[in-house]
Amino acid sequence: MNGEFITIAEASAKIASRQISPxxxxxxxxxxxxxxxxxxxxxxxxxxxxAMADARKAEAEIAAHGPKGPLHGIPxxxxxxxxxxxxxxxxxxxxxxxxxPAMDATSAARLADAGTILLGKMTTHEFADGGPSFDLPWxxxxxxxxxxxxxxxxxxxxxxxxxxxxxxxxxxTDTGGSIRGPAALCGIxxxxxxxxxxxxxxxxxxxYSLDHIGPMAWTVEDCxxxxxxxxxxxxxxxxxxxxxxxxxxxxxxxxxxxxRVGVIHHFHExxxxxxEATRGGIDTAIxxxxxxxxxxxxxxxxxxxxxxxxxxxxxxxxxxxxxxxxMRERLSEFSSVLRDRxxxxxxxxxxxxxxxxxxxxxxxxxxxxxxxxxxxxxxATQRAEAPLIDAISRWDNIERPNFTMPFNVAxxxxxxxxxxxxxxxxxxxxxxxxxxxQEALLLRAAHAYEQAAGWRGRRPSLAKAVLAA
Length: 469
Description:
Elements (H helix, E strand, L loop, with lengths): L7 H9 L5 H19 L2 E4 L1 H18 L9 E5 L26 H8 L3 E6 L33 H8 L5 E6 L5 H7 L2 E4 L19 E6 L2 H11 L29 E4 L1 H7 L4 H16 L3 E4 L5 H19 L1 H6 L6 H8 L6 H21 L5 E5 L24 H5 L4 E8 L5 E7 L5 H15 L7 H8 L1
Helix pairs in contact: 2-3, 5-6, 7-15, 10-13
């Protein structure tokens, strides 16, 4: 197959210099989908006619006026809980099988305005929660590093497709780790921005006070490019932050010299010990940042279980509120996994929910005080390499602590980047966290580490074999 693995930044430069056209790039991506996706199931709906029409339009615009920005002519996918006008948005659920929105979600519209090419809607977990489920009309996505293994969720198809080179990037959503989990297990970069930075208008709700939307891509640089197009105030989202959007690329290569990095060792060493490969990746990342000039220090927070319990109880309750009418009238139409998870809400009282909100305030204050003397925090993203997909418990979201949930509870920006490979040649990752609305600094630190670490030249052998064919 012609083509190569290419990042958004690389493709943008080649489009601008006429080395590749949007039509050629889109055709290459569609060919890769045709060759790979029967094994990975990363797309719930492919839109090839729309994609080629968008690509021809972008090619004509660029020929006439030059690219309007770095995303002009770039193929992406949209998670299937993000509304798309004229294209079904199912949330991977029987209940919305025939749902065809009248207008795009704000994030979809902004990416389209930036000139992206929509290849299709990406597999998720049912309503971004109940998966992997095997009793739905659509199969769950599989990990391109080994299709017998899990992608994490719920932005599962997006993570798999980016790693396999079928799309160059796309938005994910994150209520307790649904961007960063797939980023970690699929070996890509995924950023959960500050709560309110990116509009959620037109995105199916999960847990209102925990929901975020953010970029997923092969590199940190590509996440910065996507975030630039997605971020900004939107009056259609009541939680949208009204503040200027900085230039996320301007300081991306500024390095980490002098930055103070607080390592939450007890999260991944004591509270929920990680695998040897995961810990090795974290330790190497710490050493790399130190060699680059960062100042490393220890940071202590409440136990990881406290953060996870607080966020999980809020999530259970707010998800039930979002889908209460269907729970009452159409419960049997949910997958068995999501049905059981939603039923947990019947065990939560109003007092429980209020106490969780009270505890949340305490934890948020604790984090703010802990970050007063550091610029970046660092810990694990996932405990281990990707498990077998058929070994995932339906209660995996509550059976054990969650490294990503603390930063949904606090609403602060957090990014997952690849930190190496472990058993079965499966990726492991490190998570970095910044203060509210400090995405530019977070991207700068993550980019510096990613460039020094050198893992971005390695792609899944499954995808490489198709590329060589």
